């Protein structure tokens, strides 16, 4: 890959013809239309937080270096930003009065409100830019390399870069657009930031059954995202219909997997709602995230709930009582061994050879208190299961 160093391009040059799209949240063009600021392999603009974008401007005013910027030459006098689009978008947005920066008196000032000498300092700041020329594979590999430092690219941001094309363009318009009115609804079930591609990642993860890279490779040049969008909406609609109550623990669950396993079963949303509230109100349930799969699976797998077990004081007390009684009648201190006919019928087990067990299973409304506790040998306790 060929690289050429340019040190005569200023912020004024870059901001000539700067276009920022508020709807898509990205810088589009600069350098009098010659520069594409955010090509499709680039991640969304993530500096618009009132801190990182302000830091860029304050660094310029203090004379701090902005670091290296890389452009890709795609045609005669046509370039794309390979690295530096966050910084470029930040000073482009500031010069076009999209946000304010506090001055030395603590006053918020947009670009046209600051002193003329400061405006001049910003606009005349020269940038250190490398112009890169090479094959697409070389450019993508270089892009991956230079993004190791700074704010690391997410896995999906890297995938978008590697498999850039019409499919990624359309998918980002749907799932990486903070202005999409569905984002708030999706946020109840998906953890992450729409600008960091977490929503897009989940959508592809669900439809591909976890094979994201393979799916993106096969669909890279598709001119539509119908399958992706339809499957994603099917999962979301199924979740929101089955569980009418939105709980914070629902966010980030494996809804794609759960949809595949349970969407063909019928559920009564009203009954499901009652069951959820009962489990949320049960002090013995330690893992509330497991409630939803527990209900979908027919309320069988109590391991999902991490039900509170008997404490050590209870275990020792019950063991002492059972053992004293068993010794007095010459039987095993494991009630199930005592009714057997093998050599363990009269065996006295040590406490570390026994487990505390619910006489009436928790799933059948048995409480986790001393009145519902018995000590069983480990073999019988494991065989008893949820009976």
How would you summarize what this structure contains?
It is built from 17 helices and 11 strands. The chain has helices spanning 11-15, 52-61, 85-95, 116-123, 136-146, 155-162, 166-175, 183-186, 198-208, 212-219, 226-242, 255-262, 269-280, 291-296, 312-329, 335-338, 378-384, and strands at residues 2-10, 19-21, 26-30, 35-36, 69-75, 78-83, 101-102, 108-109, 126-133, 354-358, 373-377. Strand 2 and strand 3 form a beta hairpin.
Structural class: alpha+beta
Uncertain regions: pLDDT < 50 for 5+ in a row? none
Give the strand tally: 11
- Shape assignment: elongated
Largest sheet: 7 strands, mixed
Overall pLDDT score:
87
Question: Oligomeric form of this entry?
Answer: single chain
Ends distance: 68 Å
Helix content: 40-55%
How many DSSP helices? 17
Task: Write the topology of this structure.
Blueprint: E1 2-10, H1 11-15, E2 19-21, E3 26-30, E4 35-36, H2 52-61, E5 69-75, E6 78-83, H3 85-95, E7 101-102, E8 108-109, H4 116-123, E9 126-133, H5 136-146, H6 155-162, H7 166-175, H8 183-186, H9 198-208, H10 212-219, H11 226-242, H12 255-262, H13 269-280, H14 291-296, H15 312-329, H16 335-338, E10 354-358, E11 373-377, H17 378-384
Parallel strand pairs: 4-6, 5-9
Antiparallel strand pairs: 1-9, 2-3, 3-4, 5-6, 7-8, 10-11
Helix pairs in contact: 2-3, 9-10, 9-11
Provide an overview of this structure.
It is a single chain. This protein starts with a strand and ends with a helix. The mean pLDDT is 87. It has 387 residues and is α+β, with helices and mostly antiparallel strands. A hairpin with a 4-residue loop joins β3 and β4. α9 (198-208) packs across α11. It has a seven-stranded mixed sheet. Strands 7-8 form a two-stranded antiparallel sheet. The protein is built from 17 helices and eleven strands.
């Amino acid at each position: 890959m060929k690289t050429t160093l340019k040190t005569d391009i200023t912020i004024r040059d870059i901001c000539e013809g700067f276009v920022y799209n508020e709807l898509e949240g990205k810088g589009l063009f600069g350098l009098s239309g010659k520069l594409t600021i955010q090509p499709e392999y680039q991640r969304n603009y993530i500096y618009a937080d009132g801190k990182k974008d302000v830091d860029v401007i304050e660094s310029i005013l203090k004379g701090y270096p902005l670091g290296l910027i890389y452009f890709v030459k795609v045609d005669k006098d046509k370039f794309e930003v390979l690295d530096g689009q966050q910084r470029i978008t930040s000073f482009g947005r500031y010069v076009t009065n999209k946000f304010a920066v506090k001055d030395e008196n603590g006053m918020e000032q947009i670009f046209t409100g600051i002193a003329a000498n400061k405006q001049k300092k910003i606009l005349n700041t020269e940038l250190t830019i490398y112009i890169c020329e090479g094959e697409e594979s070389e450019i993508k590999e270089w892009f991956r390399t230079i993004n190791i430092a700074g704010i690391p690219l997410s896995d999906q941001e890297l995938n978008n870069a590697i498999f850039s094309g019409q499919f990624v363009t359309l998918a980002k318009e749907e799932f990486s657009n903070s202005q999409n009115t569905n984002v708030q609804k999706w946020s109840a079930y998906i953890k992450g930031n729409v600008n960091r591609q977490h929503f897009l990642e989940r959508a592809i993860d669900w439809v591909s059954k976890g094979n994201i890279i393979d799916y993106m490779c096969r669909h890279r040049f598709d001119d539509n995202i119908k399958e992706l969008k339809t499957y994603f909406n099917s999962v979301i609609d199924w979740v929101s219909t089955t569980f009418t109550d939105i709980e914070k623990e629902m966010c980030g669950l494996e809804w794609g997997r759960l949809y595949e396993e349970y969407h063909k079963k019928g559920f009564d949303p009203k009954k499901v709602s009652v069951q959820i509230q009962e489990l949320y109100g049960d002090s013995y349930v330690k893992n509330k995230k497991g409630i939803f799969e527990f209900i979908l699976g027919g309320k069988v797998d109590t391991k999902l709930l991490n039900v509170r077990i008997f404490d050590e004081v209870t275990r020792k007390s019950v063991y002492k009582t059972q053992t004293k009684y068993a010794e007095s009648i010459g039987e095993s201190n494991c009630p199930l061994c005592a009714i057997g006919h093998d050599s363990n019928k009269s065996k006295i087990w040590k406490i570390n050879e026994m487990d505390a067990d619910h006489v009436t299973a928790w799933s059948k409304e048995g409480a986790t208190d001393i009145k519902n506790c018995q000590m069983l040998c480990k073999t019988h306790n494991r065989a008893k299961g949820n009976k």
